[in-house]
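Q: My labmate handed me this sequence with no annotations at all. I'd like to see what the chain might look like in three dimensions before we decide whether it's worth expressing. Could you predict it?
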Amino acid sequence: MNVLYFLRQCERNRNNEIPDAESPLGQWPHSLSSMLACLSCSLGLFNICRFGILSIHFGANFIFQFFFLSLFVGLPLFTLQLCLGQQLGAGVVDMWRISPLFQGVGVSLLVSQALIGLYSITGVSWMFVYFRDSFITKMDKYRWAEAFHPYRKVPDQFVNISHKLSDTLPDYLSGVVYQRTNLVYGNVYGTIKFQPAFNLAVVWMIVFVSLSKGLRSYGKVIYVFILLPVFGTFILCAKLLGMMPPEYVNVIFPETSWSEFFTNPKSWIAACQEVFLTWGVLSAAVMQIASHNKNKHLLQRDSSLIAVITFAVLILVAFLANTCVQILHSHGYTYRPNSFEKLSTYTFMRSIKDPLPPNLATTPVRYMVHNSYILGEKVVRPGMDHTSESGYQVLRLATELVPATFALLGSERISPFWAVLFYFILILFGIAQQLAIWHCVITGIMAIKAKVLKSWETTITFFSCACGFILGLPMTTELGIYVVYFLDVTVGGLWWLILVILLQIVAVFMVRGRPYSGDTVVTAMFKATTQSCLLNWAPALLSFTWNVVLPVVLMVFCVTFFKNGNFRELFIWHHAPSLDYWPLWARQIGSMIQLLPVLCIPLVAVIQSYRYLNNGPSDILERIQLLYRPPLGEHMDDLGVQEAATTTTTNNTSPTATNIPPEDPPPKYTPPPSYTTATGARIAKLLRQSIRRSVRRIANALGESSSSRQRANAQQNSEVLPPPPPPDYNAVLVEMNQSTTSSQNASDSVDHVVISVTNSSNAANNQGGGGDTTYSGGFTAAHVANILRNSFRSTARAANTLRRSINDNHGSLSAENLVESAAPIGETSLVLEHLSNSDDLNENKPANTEFLSVI
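A: Here is what I predict for the chain of 855 residues:
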């Protein structure tokens, strides 16, 4: 391992810093590509239409409530995903190397993105119909302003009846866009219609071409799909705001009631739903986009631009929607919520002269129950028949309000170019959001085995788009709007997705913890070059919001959305199907769609627990730690390597292989010791090795070599011998290796002085020769003290030699030199090998008292 890299990792671990990580799936080709891709997650076709309609229903109260909640909940949730993606260099699937136990959270988030993209892309295909019919001349009328009877089969007695604009707009949406040609007869069929299927295929082809080359193509086309609609929105709003009647300029938001700012819970719930739909519903896509950033990317700049542009566009859309309402009012119409099921419930424009039903006249729209979903919103009107009406409609701004405004103004007062521009902007916003969603899905699939699947990126993209198109064909039938509504209620119900994101926050900050704590993750947002006044309070406030405020608020959101959406009905299966809007089988499927992503988390946790507890280190506590809180540098792939090694060792049955002990695993990373600890460890190691050499020489002197021990073991196997008597302490042979170098001529010869003390029951032998002298006789306490004194002196000389050699080579005994000279247990240290050559030269030198004082 590179020493500098090792020391850098040591310093990061000591400071609780997250190590730098880069995504194996590549990086963005341009610096602004990441910001624009994240902007497409917070600003799309669907939240633009929802925000405009909700500002009509609740007035300016909703706008201020949305901004307030966005600052304290929405933006912290959005920036959390940004920081996690960049710090970990991974998306929702491969980020769980930090805690493999919660791998199911990533799988659940990936499934949620796939489900959202699967049915929401149908709404983008519907915009192509309006875009096509916007190309007219100044002498023509918009197709949605013409009588609809030529486009559906009706009895002859209805042909000559004149149609109002309040009738032609719903008929156009139902007959031309949805292709519900049999709606007038009350029948619907599941036949695939060519026009919706063709438009859907066009959208999928655009998605495939844009993502076929990965970040190389996505990073370039995102400039077109975001910058053009943003600039186009500013131009379009400036034009339509100038068309507002002068008498209504002072009353831009007619439903505003400041006295009800805190007392109307309906507006607060709608604001909470819109905040999560804007900043949190595509959190997995945001994290995947941020994972491709380079290290030290300017997240503070990106998040600031995203927030400013999102707020600016949404405010302009709110003014645009209320301007359209005022234009309708000046022409004698009022705008009311409707339901898509029947022609009688489909009318959203009413004449001011026509009296309202009693239930609608006494209850303003801002007091009705609202439920916001991904594609559309649902308004529960008083007295509504809940068995046949839902109050749901998709993209009301684009399918109802703006077409009615252009039809009333006519091509003479406003050029059709502005209608073309409006739908072109919505199409670009919708495609940009689909690119973000399916980029997350495709890269999440490749992240399972990034090194293997990276080369198959184009193939995976093609099959993903093909499967998405095939699964989306049921939404191109006459039943398509029912399928969209069903999926929007179940998938876009939000409560289960909020629960999954809450588990993600708990797993990262509370279970995993350091170094992936809020104080460390927030460093990706604020750099050292940031203004000091901002660094004093912003990181601490954001970290506190992530750890405390955000989990509590998300739990409140989960409970509130579940109760407000009345999702309890999906889990009640004992009611008769005729008494509810959905039949029994539909409620069962809907409840499973919401529960399966949540149940995926404990299921994957059980699988991961089985994998990690059955493989790995011998210590069960260490396996548990690798499961939920592995040390830095651990990855799930390491477990696969261990499993393969275990399988190979088990299958190898040769006798030679079984006798070879397995190699020790490489030492795991531990923080570097302090100077005092490292010095004490080296001295202890010197003493331990000196004692080992002494014991080994004693064994050799007694004749107990390795070969003799093996022969003794073989004899014990053949016959049973009586155990030898316990040795007497006087029957110890002590050999001290005192190397002396008197001159250069005797450098290759070593004199050994062997003191032999035998047991009194044995005969004494004196052997000499070759410069070796053997003494035998009684062994007193003075002899033992003399031997031990010489042993400690030789140890002190070895330590003195160590200090001298380090000072000569490096100038100081630093922690870096200790790490370089360290060796695993059981192997010879590099320093001791050097000492074995230099010990003879320092025998007669006195021990360094200064170094012994450290001991």
